[in-house]
Amino acid sequence: MGLESQFMTFMKVVIPIYLAAFVVYMLSVLRGRSVPDVVLAVDCMSFDVAAFMAILAVYFRSTFLVTGAIVLALWAYLLDVYVAKHLAEGEVGA
Fold it and tell me: pLDDT tens for residues 5-21?
């Protein structure tokens, strides 16, 4: 059993898990009981997409996907900081 066949078996297990998690997060975004709940769901979705992009980067041997995953994760982190500062202080700025 080669490395590529092991990876494809791994992907057959991982893709449905990622899709199920993404659907649950999307329902949480649409239901949106409060702002922190929506931010947490968007944060989880973006980190899941970033992790999936990193897995695909290993498969395709592409550095571009890794760069995109890092940028996406950083944007999600900045969203967290922005919302946390807004909720703590009521404003965002200098």
Answer: 888 898 899 889 989 99
